[in-house]
Design brief:
Blueprint: H1 2-15, E1 25-28, H2 38-53, E2 57-60, H3 74-85, H4 108-120, E3 124-127, H5 131-143, H6 159-168, E4 173-176, E5 183-187, E6 191-195, H7 197-200, E7 205-207, H8 215-225, E8 230-234, H9 241-251, E9 257-261, E10 264-265, H10 281-286, H11 291-300, E11 303-305, H12 317-323, E12 324-329, E13 334-335, H13 338-353, H14 359-373, H15 381-384, H16 387-397, H17 431-443, H18 451-464, H19 469-481, H20 489-509
Parallel strand pairs: 1-2, 8-9, 10-13
Antiparallel strand pairs: 3-4, 4-7, 5-6, 11-12
Length: 510
């Protein structure tokens, strides 16, 4: 916990985001029923940028009222993924704040208090309908080709009937009375929106039988009590917004300003799904995608910026905040373009490598990747995982790879581990030649172990010993890397360095 707080403070200092808190207050309110994916990251990012661009506050609230679907560890994972992405809340469950708790499961007394206000002003009522009755209503509606909805039966119970049922201990939930009027609102992204909720839906449950609130009720109460000025959320919630506005009116509260973000689609046009492993933030982290590359990838699929900086440019946090313009968000659904992510990641990798201050961070990322990938293989740390070697590899590979995980692909394995070579895979007729080569390389100065000089030397050596150059390179490549194909041999030698090159040739000879 202390480590997390230190990391948060450090990131905030680096990004220099100490803003005076003004009127704008927005929130990101995920449910811990799954891990953070790219769609929810976009929602968090746009809320964060809107807050920063308006000198406002960004709040993280966890909506965990559906306890049966909560995944252990999901809350901590969401917090860590946001921290990794550089999206740092001003108030959250970890550090608290003036309007907490920020976990809905710890706010049950607040919801109970407020739902009584709606019952007392006759905006809500006790519903005693059994699950069997609700299922019968549903089956009958489907049989008649209608959309299933509650028939509002318990809305018409008298006060005496309600008191008797409560006295008997009959199970109940609490429902909100929907208005028959069409509720309109101005969506700051889509414009004027109208939904006739009353004709399409029955009165919604706001407090379930277990005493927990539903999303619709809890988010209205929390947004009001937490002073949320703007609600930016996915387009799937737009149809529910009139219902929420009705609840605000029932409380005699002023609703926040609403804006709904269009869908982000898979490259094939299908909707994103929590079941897709390749859209989870954890997937991108393990693949060696950098946070800013992922954020630029997200905005590329959704708009919202005056100037994105061009096709071959990656915006910094400060530029993202400065350029963000909510009126520029596209209303049409947008498809993700995975090649764009790799392009952005390559640009970010080059930017990070250009500044030596990032070396420690990059070395640690690569070292962890390698250790995890080859945990069951022999790794010589002093030769293959020292800081200098990793930075050398990164600089050599930055034009060849798009993400850090490419460094542990099979064709790159020679960089980290000793290849499994055997006598029968290298013609015995060249064994003596490799012994001679080993002795010659031992005498050559380290500064000559670069590809241009080494390429000339190897050609000369092959000619002097009457070995076909192509054949010689084929076997030397296999000795050094265990690969039949790969980078040029002289380039391999440059990357591996003198000590490792000699070690591997000796390994073959012995």
């Amino acid at each position: 916990m202390k480590c997390n707080i230190f990391r948060i403070t450090n990131v905030q200092f680096v990004q220099k985001r100490f803003f005076k808190k003004l009127q704008v207050r927005v929130r990101f309110a995920p449910s811990p029923t799954g891990f953070l994916h790219i769609g929810s990251l976009r929602t968090a990012l746009y809320n964060y940028l809107f807050a920063r661009a308006n000198d406002g506050s960004f709040i993280l609230r966890i909506e965990d009222t559906d306890q049966s679907r909560c995944i252990p560890g999901a809350i901590e994972k969401i917090e860590n993924d946001l921290l990794w992405a550089g999206i740092i809340p001003d108030e959250d469950p970890l550090r608290g704040g003036p309007v907490g708790p920020y976990l809905q499961s710890k706010r049950l007394e607040i919801y109970q208090e407020h739902v009584l206000k709606l019952i007392n002003n006759q905006s809500a009522y006790y519903c005693f309908c059994t699950e069997n009755r609700l299922q019968l209503l549903k089956r009958e509606a489907l049989k008649c080709g209608q959309v299933p909805k509650y028939d509002n039966r318990c809305r018409h119970l008298s006060d005496d009937e309600v008191k008797q049922k409560l006295k008997k201990g009959d199970p109940y939930c609490i429902r909100f009375k929907l208005s028959s009027e069409i509720e309109c609102f101005d969506d700051i992204i889509y414009g004027k929106i109208e939904h006739d909720i009353g004709s399409r839906e029955g009165d919604p449950i706001i407090i379930k039988g277990d005493g927990y609130p539903t999303y619709h009720f809890a988010n209205v109460v929390d947004d009001h009590l937490m002073g949320i000025s703007h609600v930016l959320r996915g387009i799937e919630w737009q149809v529910s917004t009139p219902k929420h506005i009705m609840m605000y009116k029932a409380f005699n509260w002023t609703p926040p300003v609403y804006g709904h973000l269009p869908l982000i689609l898979n490259p094939n046009g299908t909707k994103l799904s929590k079941r897709q492993n390749d859209i989870n933030i954890e997937y991108f982290r393990k693949e060696g995608i950098f946070p800013l590359a992922l954020l630029n990838y997200v905005i590329h699929a959704g708009g919202g910026f005056d100037n994105r900086g061009g096709a071959h440019y990656i915006n910094s946090y400060e530029e993202l905040i400065k350029q963000f313009n909510i009126s520029k968000i596209k209303v049409a659904s947008n498809k993700l373009s995975p090649p764009k992510l790799l392009e952005f990641n390559k640009i970010e990798m080059s930017k990070l490598l250009a500044n030596e201050k990032n070396n420690k961070f990059l070395v640690e990322r690569v070292r962890n990747l390698v250790m995890e990938a080859y945990s069951e293989r022999k790794i010589d740390g002093s030769l293959h995982l020292d800081d200098h070697h990793i930075i050398t590899i990164l600089k050599w590979a930055q034009t060849r790879i798009s993400k850090l995980s490419d460094l542990i692909s099979p064709e790159m394995s020679f960089i980290w581990i000793i290849p499994a070579t055997s006598e029968d895979k290298v013609h015995s007729e060249y064994s003596d030649a490799f012994k001679i080569l080993n002795n010659k390389l031992l005498e050559i100065d380290t500064e000559h172990f670069h590809k241009s000089w080494m390429n000339s030397y190897l050609k000369q050596f092959a000619a002097e010993h009457s070995i076909p150059y192509a054949t010689f390179m084929k076997h030397l490549r296999f000795i050094l890397s265990g690969l039949k194909e790969g980078p040029p041999v002289a380039e391999m030698i440059e990357i591996l360095g003198k000590d490792t090159t000699l070690f591997r040739i000796n390994h073959y000879i012995s």
